[in-house]
DNA sequence: CCTGCTGCCTGGACGC
DNA sequence: TGCGTCCAGGCAGCAG
């Protein structure tokens, strides 16, 4: 293998796995106390009530890569960035880890720890549910619910590469570097293809592939690149399904040609030059 | 408005 | 062994 990656890189499937693993432990619990060990991971106000202290968790939602804990009145958005995780800690004697920045104490004696060594993630308190709705309205639709017509409209007049477009959370929410590369490989589309050049048919194929790939990744519990685990310490298995990510310079599993690696849309990008040719289209 | 680029941040890999 | 350097990437902010 080439580069060994050292981050969990939570994208939609990983965030969904975390949500699914935590939901049953958190919903219905009252947060008795919140300990904020690093103020700067909270964006905006960080009073105990902003972090849901004294409130009952009534739901856990997800949009794209963002999670939200909801109480009766408020909400708290959790963004994992690229190294963030949420961990349910049941053993009352276990000490917090070095980068456990926020700890929620629950009424059943369990705790929820927000851990984020690189601090690209963070927490955003929402005064009410409407604020959360408004925040998520600014993002594109969740990748699992994205419609062909939406992509067609958003990409119609853009000059950006399809890779940059799919990474843009305002166009579609939930994809990161891993799943965009996997998706484009699956669809035989070169990552540098201008977004506006894709036909409705190609976009329809892309959306079907997006759902298929994300769903199987969720079923596999996400991708564990190095140390990713869901909320209750289980790793994912989808990394075994990766066709291109982390395989730059290795043979394509479809045609055998060496996979190319370059910087596209500001990101390290792996693709097969033979299976994903850059098609020049007359304008 | 649109787009691309920079910097934030840590720790694992690698070279000397 | 230890130290310095590079690199990964989501996202906000900024410049052209």
**Helix share bin:** 10-25%
Structural class label: alpha+beta
Form type:
globular
Q: Any low-confidence stretches, pLDDT <50, length ≥5? A: 1-7
Please summarize the sheet with the most strands: 4 strands, antiparallel
Q: What is the radius of gyration?
A: 20 Å
Q: Cα distance, first to last residue? A: 41 Å
Number of beta strands: 10
Mean pLDDT: 90
What's the total helix number? 6
Give the strand line-up of the largest sheet.
1-6-7-5
**Strand percentage:** 15-25%
Spell the H/E element sequence. Answer: HEEEEEEEEHHHHHEE
What does this structure look like?
- By secondary structure, this protein is of the alpha+beta class.
- The chain is 24% helix and 19% strand.
- It contains 6 helices and 10 strands, in the order H-E-E-E-E-E-E-E-E-H-H-H-H-H-E-E.
- The chain has helices at 12-26, 129-137, 148-155, 162-167, 177-186, 200-219, and strands spanning 31-36, 59-63, 66-70, 75-79, 85-89, 100-106, 111-115, 122-126, 260-264, 267-271.
- A hairpin with a 2-residue loop joins strand 9 (260-264) and strand 10.
- Helix 1 (12-26) crosses helix 6 (200-219), helix 3 (148-155) crosses helix 6 and helix 5 (177-186) packs across helix 6.
- It is globular.
- The chain starts with 11 loop residues before the first helix and ends in a 12-residue tail after the last strand.
- The chain binds a DNA duplex (16 and 16 nucleotides) through loops.
């Amino acid at each position: 293998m080439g580069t060994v990656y050292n981050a969990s890189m939570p994208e939609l499937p990983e965030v969904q796995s975390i949500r699914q693993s935590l939901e049953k432990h958190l919903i219905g619990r009252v947060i008795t106390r919140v300990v904020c060990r690093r103020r700067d991971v909270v964006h905006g106000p960080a009073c105990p009530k902003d972090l849901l202290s004294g409130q009952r968790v009534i739901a856990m939602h997800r949009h794209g890569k963002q999670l939200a804990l909801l109480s009766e009145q408020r909400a708290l958005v959790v963004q994992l960035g690229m190294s963030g995780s949420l961990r349910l800690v049941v053993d009352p004697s276990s000490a917090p880890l070095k980068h456990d920045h926020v700890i929620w104490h629950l009424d059943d004696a369990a705790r929820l720890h927000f851990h984020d060594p690189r601090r690209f993630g963070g927490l955003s308190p929402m005064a009410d549910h409407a604020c959360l709705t408004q925040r998520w309205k600014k993002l594109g639709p969740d990748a699992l619910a994205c419609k062909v017509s939406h992509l067609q409209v958003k990409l119609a007049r853009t000059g950006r590469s399809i890779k940059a477009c799919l990474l843009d959370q305002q166009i579609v929410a939930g994809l990161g570097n891993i799943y965009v590369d996997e998706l484009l490989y699956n669809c035989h589309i070169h990552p540098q293809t201008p977004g506006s050049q894709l036909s409705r048919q190609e976009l329809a194929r892309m959306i079907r592939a997006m759902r298929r790939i994300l769903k199987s990744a969720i079923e596999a519990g996400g991708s564990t690149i190095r140390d990713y685990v869901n909320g209750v310490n289980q790793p994912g298995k989808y990394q075994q399904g990766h066709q291109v990510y982390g395989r730059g310079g290795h043979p394509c599993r479809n045609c055998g040609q060496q996979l190319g690696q370059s910087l596209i849309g500001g990101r390290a990008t792996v693709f097969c030059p033979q299976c994903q040719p850059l098609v020049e289209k007359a304008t």
